[in-house]
Amino acid sequence: MDEFVRHDYVLALDGELPAAAVPAELTVRVLHTVDDDSLAVLMEAAYAGTIDEQLGGNADGAVEIANWRQFVADAPASRVAADGDGRLVGACLVGRWDGSVFVAYVVTDPAWKGRGVGAAVLAASLGALRDAAEEVVGATITEGNEASERLFAAFGFRRAEAP
Fold first, then answer.
1. Which of 12, 111, 150, 155 is deepest in the core (most CB within 10 A)?
2. Domains of the chain with bracketed CATH
3. Closest CA to 137 of 18, 47, 8, 27
């Protein structure tokens, strides 16, 4: 398996967050455990054919979601976007590890890419973190994942300095 370079990014939650409009036909809400099967399918579809296709070393969305839930999940800060039929089309999953909070995943159904879904769920999760009095949030992005780099930069994330 090829090794990819990943970079850490940080955002201080002390300033204004950009507004992100939710597409009119979608609802953004808190993630629930009953969403996990749909979330796994969404994750696999979102990553298929991308630089991050192997997810956390596998291509199984169910395994990835189970690992997120078991080890790092901050479900109360995580948000999903659902269409009128309740089908998940986007998600921002937040994690906590060793005292730090981070955006673990932002995924969008390929049919919804470019329509603001990723921005909507990221904005909702960042708002929840600010409401919970978090001061800083991190993210790790694979080098070459230009869509993620653009999305996170639009929200003010900056590449972290190497230690």
1. 155
2. 6-159 (3.40.630.30)
3. 8
